[in-house]
Amino acid sequence: MEAAVIRSAGRGRKRRRKDVSNALLDRQTKKRAVETRWKALMGRYVKKEFKGSGTFLGKIVFYDSGLYRVDYEDGDFEDLESGEVMRFLIGDDFDDNLIARKKKLDELLSKKDVKTKEVLVGNAMDSVNTVDGVEALSSSELSNSGANEIDGVQVDGDASSSSNSCEYDRDSSLEVEASLVSPPQLPPSSGNIGVPVEFVSHLFSVYSFLRSFSIRLFLSPFTLNDFVGSLNCPVPNTLLDAIHVALMCALRRHLETLSSDGSVLALKCLRCIDWSL
């Protein structure tokens, strides 16, 4: 009989360790793919049937934390996951009925955006008025503090006059500091530029900014005379339209970058601004 050969159990093949940089690259690629997917669905239309209510046309208005907000033509809305959204998406081949409903839906959403902006502006104005009221109250209390009792001690006339003189000196110093900060002196020829003299410095600042970032904003070069002419033009013109579109595109790209990094404020700005203008 042949002797049985005893074979040692060999080790299994070593598992290749995944490179850390490759893993990071894969995660970034997946993240970009997800961002591209949700951005591509923004502004698309859906048609969904609700039992007992009928079929309604809706529009995807924004995306947040894996959910798409869909506003419907009856004024209602709901949040859907990507799988649900894909089931109800409709193509671009609208018939006459859908075109009319789409137009009404867009008008409804536009009015809704205007109301949202008015609420935001109203809240901002209320905050400013509140701050102004607090500052006015504080200044009134400070001006009268020299004539009132502090912790039960009555201030005499000499101390009151001394505090008033200190306040006068402080106000005088503030006026001197304010007078030192004056607009730059411009040559007499600046009065022939085509805008009021008090706005010439602002004109130069805006023009220099636009020319400095013309490449980043994808703006074709233009002269100062062209810019002044477009400002004085009483009808819409291509130069101001190009500047407006370039600034809005740059702002939207920046807000989308901040929003993808988790900025809630940037996401709110993307929701509130009407980017179709």
From TrEMBL:
Region (Disordered): 1-21, 140-167
Keyword Nucleus in record: yes
Location of this chain's protein in the cell: Nucleus
Annotated protein name in UniProt: DDT domain-containing protein
4Fe-4S keyword on record: no
Family annotation (PANTHER family): PHD FINGER FAMILY PROTEIN
Main subcellular location of this protein, as a coarse class: nucleus
Gene Ontology CC annotation, any one: nucleus
Keywords: Nucleus
